[in-house]
Amino acid sequence: MAKTILIVDDSASVRQVVSIALKGAGYEVITGNDGKDALTKLNGQRIHLIISDVNMPNMDGITFVAEAKKLPAYKFTPIIMLTTESQEDKKRQAQAAGAKAWVTKPFQPEQMLSAVAKLVQP
């Protein structure tokens, strides 16, 4: 059975590029336009990994990660932050909230898939 990955980014083009790379590697993909929208997707269905942007309207990525981690079904779901941000304090905040990895945009699909493969449990 395919593993399901939630992509959260306010940029439709980023969601599309990440979706194409993941679908090409055999993953199922669900998308959210921002943290608030993405939280509505966390409705108990099995999600194996979350990829989230940091800077988004309505609810930023770090707040989203913290909120997602409060939900019992997603407490242990690994999260990759995909962002243009590279400041150490942002990385620390994301890690403190529960993020496991940090990928900087622009990214190579292979780099993303490698990070995903490390975090998605078989």
Core attributes:
5 helices, Rossmann fold, single chain, alpha/beta, 122 residues, five-stranded parallel beta sheet
Strand order of the largest sheet: 2-1-3-4-5
Low-confidence stretches: none
User: Which architecture name does CATH use?
Assistant: 3-Layer(aba) Sandwich
Helical fraction: 40-55%
The end-to-end distance, rounded to whole angstroms, is 10 Å
Strand content: 15-25%
CATH topology name, in short, is: Rossmann fold
Largest sheet: number of strands, sense, barrel closure: 5 strands, parallel
Quote the average pLDDT: 94
How many beta-strand segments? 5
Keywords: Phosphoprotein
Modified residues (4-aspartylphosphate): 53
Organism: Paractinoplanes toevensis
Domain Response regulatory: 4-120
TL;DR?
InterPro entries: Bact_response_regulator (IPR050595), CheY-like_superfamily (IPR011006), Sig_transdc_resp-reg_receiver (IPR001789). This protein has helices spanning 12-24, 35-41, 61-70, 88-97, 109-119, and strands at residues 4-8, 28-32, 49-52, 79-83, 101-104.
Task: Describe the structure in your own words.
The protein has 122 residues and is an alpha/beta fold. It has one domain: Rossmann fold. Helices cover 42% and strands 19% of the residues. It has five helices and five strands. It has helices at residues 12-24, 35-41, 61-70, 88-97, 109-119; strands at residues 4-8, 28-32, 49-52, 79-83, 101-104. The protein has a five-stranded parallel sheet with strand order 2-1-3-4-5, with helices on both faces. Strand 4, helix 4 (88-97) and strand 5 (101-104) form a beta-alpha-beta unit. Helix 3 packs parallel to helix 4 (88-97). The relative contact order is 0.19. This is Response regulator. Pfam families: Response_reg. The modification 4-aspartylphosphate is found at residue 53.
